[in-house]
Write a structure and sequence with these properties.
The protein is α/β, with parallel strands linked by helices. Helix content is 31%, strand content 15%. The chain is built from 12 helices and 15 strands. A 7-stranded mixed beta sheet has the order 2-1-3-7-10-13-8, with helices on both faces. The chain has a 3-stranded antiparallel beta sheet with strand order 4-5-6. The longest helix has 15 residues. The two termini are 35 Å apart. Belongs to the peptidase C14B family. It comes from Hibiscus sabdariffa.
């Protein structure tokens, strides 16, 4: 089983969209994966927009999607994949003639070339069904970033939450889609041809800024050519891409979102609460929840999101982290692979009964188990010692082997 991760932090330095805690989020998450969850350093890719970062390591749309595709393409049954995004989010409401109303949730790379829920759905469709893929998105409007997932912890209305204390400084992690369109227009020429020789006059730009459909159909493809989200491709190309993959079930993909689809999430500036470092409120809550349970039974995805919700509510934040996944994945430990159907103890009770009732009943004569310890005990892994000939062994296995050696030539040993 391999564990692979992509960690993305966008602070958007020297822009009007500047955040402060996203790179710190990624740095702390990387330490957690390596030290707590035993990811290999070579299997954890980090993309941040820290000043001086070379272009190939910046969290642009192209670099993020290339890293995600590589992770997905290399995945095999039983692997655990993790994508952590810390940065701005946005929503896109599309109303086009002859097309149904659609609202896409999106994350905002450092080049503002959006990645939408449709792109993530396409990636998950490529995966083997027995691969675990967890997304933790610390961005505004992030509820619903994985399409067709069951809502385990969803929208909530909490009344009379006291506001955050005045010493807790923060800003929202969200960019209105109109601000993105204006920013993108600033990097294009006012006379750039659009289609069939049409000139991009101020009147033309004013018309398309006023509609999201204009943004989807003109601005992003104009700036980024073919390197745009599936959401911004012509409808026939969208259908061809998505219909060529298998359909998704609710069991595929795990989303831990910083907020509901209609909420902003907080970017905390450095202060006493965070040890002087800036952080995303949700990422910080997740890190605190995992740290407080260190050495205890692993937190399930559901328990972790509930702990994060309570942490943020106690601080006075009106953002509600959500969890979208199957029932089985809700109760699975965070970043742990949920075994496939052959592992009966991880199935739902009705699935267990269906499987076991179809087989003949067992008698007490049909199994022999020699176990290393009682059910309430741990077993021992011996390091290299003189009495083991300088080799490491499990204590019980070494004892069994010694028993065979000492009785060699004296007839077979019974199991007892």
């Amino acid at each position: 089983m391999a564990k692979r991760a992509l960690l993305v932090g966008c602070n958007y330095p020297k822009t009007q969209f500047r955040l402060y805690g996203c790179i710190n989020d990624v740095s702390e998450m990387q330490k957690l994966l390596l030290n707590r969850f035993h990811f290999d350093e070579n299997d954890v890719k980090v993309l941040t927009d820290e000043l001086g970062t070379p272009p190939e390591k910046l969290p642009t749309h192209v670099n993020i999607m290339a890293a995600l595709r590589k992770m997905v393409d290399e995945a095999k049954a039983g692997d655990v994949l993790f994508f952590h995004f810390s940065g701005h989010g946005t929503t896109i409401s599309s109303v086009e003639p002859g097309q149904p109303f659609r609202e896409d949730e999106a994350i905002v790379p450092c080049d503002l070339n959006l990645i939408t829920d449709m792109d993530l759905r396409h990636l998950i469709q490529k995966l083997d069904e027995n691969v675990s893929f967890t997304i933790l998105s610390d961005s505004c409007y992030s509820g619903g970033l994985i399409d067709k997932n069951k809502e385990q912890i969803g929208p909530t209305r909490v009344k009379s939450i006291p506001p955050p204390p005045p010493e807790l400084h923060f800003k929202a992690r969200g960019i209105p889609i109109g601000s993105i369109s204006h920013c993108l227009l600033s990097v294009t020429s006012s006379t750039t041809p659009i289609e069939h020789g049409t000139e991009a006059t101020p009147k033309f730009w004013g018309a398309i800024i006023g509609t999201v459909a204009g943004l989807v159909g003109n601005i992003l493809p104009l700036v980024f050519k073919k390197d745009v989200s599936i959401s911004f491709l012509p409808h026939n190309e969208q259908r061809a891409l998505l219909s060529s993959k298998r359909s998704l079930s609710e069991d595929e993909g795990i989303l831990l979102s910083a907020s509901q689809a209609n909420e902003t999430s907080a970017d905390l500036k450095g202060g006493p609460l965070t040890g002087g470092k800036a952080h995303g409120a949700f990422t910080y809550a997740v890190l605190q929840g995992l740290d407080q349970k260190r050495g205890q039974e692993p937190l399930t995805n559901q328990r972790l999101v509930k702990e994060a919700r309570k942490f943020l509510q106690d601080l006075g934040f009106e953002q509600h982290p959500c969890l979208y996944c199957s029932d089985g994945n809700a109760d699975a430990p965070f970043l742990a692979h949920r075994p496939g159907p052959e592992h009966t103890c991880f199935l739902l009770q009705n699935e267990q009964r269906a499987l076991l009732s179809s087989k003949r009943s067992l008698s007490e004569d049909e199994r022999i188990l020699l176990n290393a310890c009682q059910t309430n005990e741990t077993s021992t892994d011996l390091k290299e010692r003189p009495f083991t000939g300088g080799k490491a062994h499990w204590a019980f296995t070494y004892a069994v082997l010694q028993g065979f050696y000492q009785h060699s030539g004296h007839g077979p040993l019974t199991n007892k």
